[in-house]
Specification:
mainly beta; 2 domains; 31 strands; 6 helices
Length: 360
């Protein structure tokens, strides 16, 4: 259950930038039994990246068009983080658009989330703890040594237990889609990162190289993580490696299976009391989710019949699937909290989640 991948093909657009990009607060995580936290490695065995180095789109000649990246745009600062690098490091501590952020990736459940590193009066620096909760990344911060769950986005052990993080909207998409939409983007440099961590080449160090994703064979297997992976997952009819787009609104969890989204391309739905739209581009397996309300009116959307990178409302206005920006005008749809993940990861965390089913 891959999270959302947004592919913007064809022509690029000039987008009106929001004056300020806002992080979305997450609800506090539930209490966690310490015995449910599994230790796989020692802290920092997987090294996070601090002070990352970037290339321009012109200089990133080692990037392939179909490579997956986590795309992030904050206050006009556009950056892409290749999954081939993140699968080896899992966390990048960065400052984007003046905002301290942690770009996080869990290859075991294919989840990508970008958090604000500001918590109360602290600016945290995150590392990979080597621990797992329901086969998903557990981070630690170097300032308080507390443990944080990626999918919950909150503290689960230590002085920050019960503290929630805020999420910046981000997109798991292809490099081609991202640079088409944001030609002035920077991309986390394979060359400079490899030099810093002495990663070598794929032939000399297959797992450490950034030429390929070292988890590629795992993605194609039937393994549901590495902890309790043979336990049947009953919730939502989940099967290993199926993908969903998980949406969380006001404590309510809703999962959108990729096979359903691929068929419909646009879903107009209501989660809790909020009207939402989910956009999906089948060829790139990319999706996003936004509020449907604009100027006090709840719009109804449909796929753009001419270009799958866009969707349209009942007035004929076209919107960019990648970021919810109106093609004509200054409007931008408000993103909701959406989480890409394999289904066993999503339902392991949110067993009460409802599952969207296509209706005739």
């Amino acid at each position: 259950m891959l999270t959302l991948l947004l592919s913007v093909s064809c022509s690029s657009l000039k987008i009106a930038e929001s004056s300020t990009t806002q992080a979305i607060p997450l609800p506090p995580p539930p209490p966690i039994d310490p015995n449910s936290i599994f230790t796989a490695l020692q802290p920092d065995s997987i090294p996070a990246i601090d002070e990352p180095k970037f290339d321009t789109t012109v200089n990133a000649t080692d990037m392939e068009a179909d490579e997956r990246v986590i795309g992030l745009s904050i206050n006009g600062d556009h950056r892409a983080y290749p999954i081939n690098i993140l699968s080896t490091h899992e966390i990048v501590n960065d400052v984007v658009g003046g905002q301290p952020v942690a770009v996080t990736w869990c290859p075991l459940c294919y989840s990508a989330l970008v958090f604000s590193r500001e918590v109360d009066d602290l600016v945290l620096t995150f590392g990979v703890s080597g621990k797992l909760l329901e086969n998903t990344l557990v981070m630690f911060d170097r300032e308080t040594n507390s443990l944080w769950s990626q999918l919950y986005g909150g503290g689960i052990k230590g002085t920050q237990t019960g503290t929630s993080l805020s999420v910046f909207p981000s997109t798991l998409t292809t490099w081609e889609a991202w640079q088409t939409q944001y030609p002035d983007s920077q991309v986390l440099s394979k060359r400079q990162t490899c030099s810093r961590f002495d990663c070598g080449t794929y032939s000399s160090n297959p797992r450490g190289s950034y030429e390929v994703d070292p988890y590629s064979s795992y993605y194609g297997s039937t393994d549901a993580g590495i902890v309790n992976r043979q336990i049947p997952r009953e919730a939502g009819g989940a099967q290993a490696k199926k993908r969903v787009l998980g949406v969380r609104i006001a404590g309510i969890a809703q999962a959108y299976p990729f096979e359903v989204l691929a068929d419909k391309r646009i879903v107009n739905d209501t989660v809790g009391n909020m009207d939402v739209v989910v956009w999906f581009e089948p060829s790139s397996q990319t999706g996003t989710a936004f509020q449907r309300e604009v100027n006090g009116r709840s719009l109804t959307f449909s796929p753009d019949p001419e270009n799958s990178a866009y969707f349209v409302d009942e007035t004929g206005q076209r919107w960019v699937g990648l970021d919810g920006t109106a093609v004509n005008g200054n409007q931008r749809l408000t993103p909701v909290i959406y989480t890409p993940a394999f289904d066993f990861g999503w339902y392991g965390y949110f067993p009460e989640s409802s599952t969207y089913a296509s209706t005739p």
